[in-house]
Amino acid sequence: MFKMIMGGLAILLLAASAAFWMLRPGTQRMEGSAAPDFALPDQNGRIHRLGDYAGRWLVLYFYPRDDTPVCTREACRFRDDIGTLGKLDAAVVGVSVDSAQSHAAFSRKYGLPFPLLSDPDGRTAAAYDSLLNLGLVRFARRHTFIIAPDGRIAARFDHIDPARHAEEVRDALLGLQRARATQVFSPPDRA
């Protein structure tokens, strides 16, 4: 009986430790810092690099798995808002640890008009503090980054409601672009 209680307690402690580790804050890529570079294949085998998006806005969103209900909802909302985001000179790119073949099937099934990048070793997700690695199980956390035309992180989203996220990103882009335009065109201070 004592061994069963101790075994149960050990399992409970292990589960609590895993939950604490999963929920701990990362080093968090902060706004204004340089976005980590990447070179990853998309669903068609084409390699994408951060530098490919220089001079325009990039919405880089990490998601756990292809073709799951929440990830599908998020991807389809970006799909449905791609015209508006394009008018804001923003490219949308999704990243997960799934294979390029899985991305191809997911993209085809839902008519996704943007690249889905395959990060099978999780190196890019880790560089963006967006990898959850539990040893045998590894996936990208649901995080989104808006990267400015100069390659710096302009915004980071950690708490995402997939049903509204594309709208939040659109609104953030509008705000960032307005703020940038004000900075560029504001008259110098006169002392």
List the helices and strands and how they pair.
Elements: H1 2-23, E1 39-41, E2 47-49, E3 57-62, H2 69-80, H3 82-87, E4 90-96, H4 100-110, E5 116-118, H5 123-127, E6 131-133, E7 138-140, E8 143-147, E9 153-157, H6 165-185
Parallel strand pairs: 3-4, 4-5
Antiparallel strand pairs: 1-2, 3-8, 6-7, 8-9
Report on the structure:
- It is built from six helices and nine strands, in the order αβββααβαβαββββα.
- The protein has one domain: Glutaredoxin, CATH 3.40.30.
- The N and C termini lie far apart (81 Å).
- 40% of the residues lie in helices and 20% in strands.
- With 191 residues, it is α/β, with parallel strands linked by helices.
Briefly, what is this?
The termini are far apart. The protein has helices at residues 2-23, 69-80, 82-87, 100-110, 123-127, 165-185, and strands spanning 39-41, 47-49, 57-62, 90-96, 116-118, 131-133, 138-140, 143-147, 153-157.
